[in-house]
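Board notes, transcribed. Complex of a protein with zinc ion.
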Amino acid sequence: MAQLFSNQFVNRRTALMTLISAGAALFAQGFPTVNASDNDVLANILPDVTAGSRAKLRTILSSPGFSGQIPAAAVQDLLASEKKNIAALMLALLPLARTFSHPPISNYHVGAVAQGMSGSLYLGFNIEFPGQALGFAVHGEQAALSSAYMHSEAGVSAIAVTAAPCGHCRQFMNELSPDGQIEIFVDQAAPTKLSALLPLAFGPKDLGRKDGAFPVKQTNLTSVAPASDALLQAALDAARTAYAPYTGACSGAAIATRSGRIYKGSYVENVAFNPSLSPLQTALVQMLVAGEDYSAISRVALAEIKGAKISQRTATEAVLSAIAPSVRVEFVAAETRS
Ligand SMILES: [Zn+2]
């Protein structure tokens, strides 16, 4: 039964990926049409969502710059057309978020939807890397929250998840909502605040920090050698918005794909160290939710501060070896601008 579910899942996901990557050209050819029933992929994934809402979602998912954000104005439209409150809407979108998951080790598909302070929503999903240590895995909540981070939200107010957040994710969330006020929605359970799920929390204050990761801040970094290339520059830009208060080791990654897009990922550090999210992981979330797969990766760059306390180099190479073994990481040495 689990295998059957898994196969159905892959088929749906594959179909959705085709839908998203094909974009408007395929709509013009009539596949799939907004009102299609049998071949409407979103109708299979979101059977309880109205056709009008699905059409709106399809437009957002297939827009050229999409990387996981359902903008606040669209969220308002969805709330009105679905006649749901925000918690119910976020829970209703979980099956969609889950279609982006890549869990080849567990085959356990997680979906998450985070709400930013702007009112925008962010899709999250789990990612596992075959052949590599489990510590490299990205949890669904981390993916959704990192997407809110990459879209420069001022903070996050809620997250819906397909299952109760694991301890690792509770600790990760505590860095992004150190007051514990983020609301957590899990189907069939009453809304809960993080402070109730993580009492006596070890948080940023324990290592002398006043704030958590939000709002996103800029570090004044420059590259040691000129980074004229767009990909190298993107990695440097991502390093500038990294959150690394415990090591000072700001880092950023950028992925170029054969479609011509570049996806940025910033390092998001955690007071408990282990739940920290590496920049390549953050960038991969942006790439996968855009509907691109590992086979599309053409180049990867990593920008780090020269001589920093820690490096993401070996972690980046290890993850890349699992998903795009022919791609070599290009490095950008950065320094704090004086
Ligand atoms: Zn987790």
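Residues 139, 141, 165-166, 168-169 surround zinc ion (CB under 6 Å). The chain has two domains: 64-212, 221-336.
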